[in-house]
Design brief:
Elements (H helix, E strand, L loop, with lengths): L1 E6 L9 H12 L5 E8 L19 E5 L4 H9 L12 H6 L9 H15 L3 E4 L13 E2 L11 H8 L6 H15 L6 H10 L7 E9 H7 L5 H4 L2 H9 L5 E9 H4 L11 E6 L10 E6 L2 E4 L15 E4 L13
Parallel strand pairs: 1-2, 1-4, 2-3, 4-5
Antiparallel strand pairs: 6-7, 7-8, 8-9, 9-10, 10-11
Helix pairs in contact: 6-7
């Protein structure tokens, strides 16, 4: 049975909905061939406890690390007194540590987590927060919960992009070459960089970074920096008007050279692929848009077409298309 290390600050006997999700995940993972190992914090002061949830974790190994966050300190000093306050620590300390009062748990969690990786050899890492970035490269992957209506999972996207439908080389290489030939020299930098990497003429390979987002939030991001000021105006306008489902996968396209810049503001995106996360992974309509340096291809899922035909792809040249900063996702 494969092992998964679950890292979460909130765990039984603490209650509330977030604890319930983690508890039920750990409880039922063995039915799918995964042995959970739980890493959490030592007892904390909290306003709601549900000790019965520990019954769901029977047989699961639980490791608890120390912490200096307000909730842990309050428990340490008041553990012999009943907890009646609706606060997880002195208010001024929580404000001082804003926006994350649990940040003082991180060093202890990371320290114990690294030891557990060497001791337990987990195959996967599941985290309710962003701690997976601070552990090790020895983890093969991580478990990420997705909404119920998302039918295309993240692991399918790479395969989809390599199929006849979304294969960038087969679908758009001729258009890109034609566009680059007609561009003024000063406008071809991004497109030429991308083409060289795509055709293996450069030592800097293509890098894809994918995230899942509600389409409403993505369209909102188009009205804010950096996309509102750096993304090509034609791309922004087409995306705002494009019919999108509730959830979309956005795969940012760049190169290893651009992503390896020391200064984060200099790490730029060359384009993106947008996929309908609620569609069938074998459906042509799953593909919504491909933005490559110098061109945009749109597949509007709201347009009515003959059932015998594929949906028409609209292609738009993008004069003076430049790399842009990736959207900050909160």
């Amino acid at each position: 049975m494969k092992k998964v290390l679950i890292v979460t600050y909130y765990a039984p006997p603490v209650g509330m909905a977030g604890v319930l999700r983690v508890t039920k995940l750990a409880k039922f993972l063995p039915e799918f061939g995964w042995q959970p190992i739980l890493l959490t914090v030592k007892p904390i002061s909290y306003f709601l406890y549900d000790p019965d949830l520990l019954n769901d974790l029977a047989g699961i190994t639980i490791y608890r690390s120390e912490s200096l966050d307000p909730a842990r300190l309050l428990y340490f000093f008041r553990k012999d007194k009943p907890i009646t306050v609706k606060s997880t620590g002195p208010l001024f300390i929580n404000y001082l540590l804003f926006p994350d009062a649990k940040v003082l748990w991180v060093p202890f969690a990371v320290s114990l987590g690294k030891k557990l990786i060497e001791q337990e050899f987990p195959d996967m890492l599941a985290s309710k927060g962003g701690l997976y970035n601070t552990f090790t490269e020895d983890i093969d992957g991580m478990i990420v919960p997705v909404p119920e209506k998302v039918y295309i999972l993240g692991e399918y996207l790479e395969d989809m992009i390599k199929t006849e439908v979304l294969d960038i080389k087969k679908q758009f290489i001729n258009d890109l070459c034609t566009i680059v030939k007609t561009m003024p020299v000063e406008q071809t930098v991004a497109a030429s960089t991308f083409l060289n990497s795509l055709l293996n003429l450069s030592e800097s390979p293509i890098v894809l970074r994918t995230y899942l987002i509600p389409s409403v939030k993505y369209k909102e991001s188009l009205t804010k920096k950096p996309l509102a000021t750096e993304m090509h105006e034609i791309v922004r306008d087409k995306y705002k008007r494009l019919g999108m489902p509730r959830y979309i996968w956005v795969t940012e396209i760049t190169t290893a050279e651009m992503m390896s810049k020391e200064i984060q503001s200099e790490r730029k995106i060359l384009g993106e692929i947008i996929v309908d996360a609620t569609a069938n992974k074998y459906s042509f309509s799953a593909f919504l848009a491909v933005h490559l340096p110098g061109m945009l291809a749109i597949n509007d899922i709201n347009k009515k077409i003959d059932d015998t035909d594929k949906k028409p792809i609209q292609k738009f040249p993008l004069p003076n298309d430049k790399p842009y900063s990736h959207a900050i996702r909160g």
